[in-house]
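I'd like us to work through together how a protein chain folds, taking it slowly. To get us started, please write out a protein record for me. Go ahead whenever you are ready, and we will take it from there:
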Amino acid sequence: MTQHNTNAGNGAPASDAPFDTRPDAPASLSGQRRLEEKVGKQTRRRVIAASFIGNFVEWFDYAVYGYLAATISVVFFPESDPQTALLATFALFAVSFLVRPIGGFVWGHIGDRVGRRTALSLSILIMSAATFCIALIPGYATIGIWAPALLLFVRIIQGFSASGEYAGASAFLVEYAPPRRRGIYAAVVPASTATGLLLGSLLTALFTATLSTDQMQDWGWRIPFLLAAPMGLIGRYIRTKLEDTPAFRELAAEDHAVKAPVKSMFRQHWRQLLQAVGAVLLNAVGFYVILSYMPTYLSEELGLGATESYIATTIALLTYIGFIFLTGMLSDRFGRKKVLISASVTFILLTVPAFALLGTGSFLVIVLVQILLGAMLTLNDGTLPSFLAEMFPTKVRYSGFAVSFNLSNALFGGTAPMVATLLISLTANDLAPAWYLVAAAVVSLVAVALSRETSHQPLRHE
């Protein structure tokens, strides 16, 4: 059965020529190129904007929560000593991740069965509403134990909704991208993640520099969470104006969409799933240690001033965004495996010395080290979205990406700030988070080495 679709934004009919579904399809990518010719530049720009803003809102929240952890710990756990309160705050951060694999199954099913656009439009609405609600929760001084209980409940909702965002946005971009530029297009997703962190860091630095401690604990910490509602509504509006991806429409037109994509993924693609979980491990630990936990590490463990900690992280994030797109281009040119293996090797060799330099107390050295660590992480972060999307065929792409990415993040990403704090407490060694990163890099190195190269191959249909 064949159907003709109209591409949103340029009125051009989408090609009804199927993708070449053979594993050994020729490099000409002729089916995909026919589809590429039918996708206008205006449509691709709107796809990039929609993917960017949705992912931006999600990670802006995670950034603000991580950067304001010390303040939030006082508001919600005032009766505990500072170390215990901070651990409890990061424990709530980690618990919200435990629901993410469940969300990965749900959003993966919706994305592969109903459509990528539908899943992304729903997830951003739930995410922005839950983030907004955090700002409205009274503190422990007002409602007692109900305060952390409500915070936990909202964080769980956030974890569920966020589990479909990163995977869906990556699949959306890869399936709309020109075949030889999937790496740079997918790099928009981690770039939007870093931009969300950047805005969170800027706002936190501004508030800590201009507000007193009492003002921050009373109302200042709530303001960043209030911003999620308007940003989320803008993102949803843009997404509802787009058609689904050419690859998914092609699949639906041929009536090849599977009724149980998650089941199909486990039956037919379990090896890729295991490799993907391992490949994500370095990204999960590295992202939350280097970009989210770092200001708390610098201020609480190394004694750097809170404002200086946020400024250092902000400077590093500015360079990080540029490195992300450079990595995307490198992965298009040299292949996903080579860049991902380079990321693991650099982390194994340089992480511990880099963390040792952080202890010098020099602000300039701290900024330079954070820039270095960020550049190392972009080798993984900028390549991973295209790598994971290309590992799985169209019929289970959303599910494979969402389940592997969220499972690894649930086990190792969301727990990273808590584990780093706990390791320092248990070992009395400020370098403990660095060794944790090295261990993650070793696992990812093995997983990527066992996987196949995907960058110059056509997207598989089945």
